[in-house]
Write a structure and sequence with these properties.
CATH topology of the largest domain: Arc Repressor Mutant, subunit A
Number of helices: 8
Radius of gyration: 21 Å
Order of helices and strands: HHHHEEHHHH
Largest sheet: 2 strands, antiparallel
Distance between the termini: 22 Å
Strand content: 5-15%
Structural class: mainly alpha
CATH superfamily of the largest domain: Winged helix-like DNA-binding domain superfamily/Winged helix DNA-binding domain
CATH class of the largest domain: Mainly Alpha
Number of domains: 2
Strand order of the largest sheet: 1-2
Helix content: 55-70%
């Protein structure tokens, strides 16, 4: 989903072709490599967006001794659906890293609605953390150290996520992001 949102965001800024978008995804941070995005996966997402009616081929560039280059543009339906896709991406995000594309293109959506979604995510995350913290686990003596380790890991990770979600909400509200 985030790849499709990224493609739509790049195409709302102007017509483009897949290879150039893949290159833009890898600069300055190689998100394509970090996310395991291959050219075949990228073309799959382009095809999916075409089938959804969100993008279309606007030009085919023919070069001698090279494959034809399809240039894509966003459709009116794509412009209309982009905010919905960004909101859905943020709503379904399991972590802050899953939100990066949506946050990077926040200019295409209502900031107040983004804050509302993030605050809901934060409340749900805090509720889940509290539920997990309430578990009373009886452990064999030989598993105590493992359980203590895992408890430390998950509680630290939860506190870290809560801190950064609150920081993200604050920076969006203050229009720093």
């Amino acid at each position: 989903m985030s790849i499709q949102v990224f493609i739509l965001c790049k195409l709302i800024e102007g017509n483009n072709y897949p290879y150039k978008i893949k290159k833009q995804l890898s600069e300055p941070i190689p998100f394509d490599k970090l996310g395991g995005l291959t050219e075949s996966k990228l073309y799959y997402h382009f095809d999916s967006l075409v089938k959804q009616g969100l993008i279309e081929t606007v030009e085919v560039i023919k070069e001698e001794h090279r494959p034809d280059k399809q240039v894509f543009g966003i459709t009116a339906k794509g412009r209309e659906d982009l905010p919905k896709k960004i909101y859905k991406l943020l709503e379904n995000a399991g972590s802050i890293s899953d939100m990066i594309v949506g946050i990077a293109y926040i200019k295409h959506v209502d900031r107040d609605k983004v804050v509302e979604i993030l605050e809901k995510n934060l409340k749900e995350f805090i509720t889940r953390r509290e539920h997990i913290m309430d578990f009373e686990i009886q452990v064999d003596k030989d598993k105590e150290k493992l359980i203590k380790y895992l408890d430390g890991y998950y509680s630290t990770r939860a506190e870290h996520t809560i801190f950064w979600l609150k920081e993200l909400i604050k920076q969006i509200q203050q229009k720093e992001i």
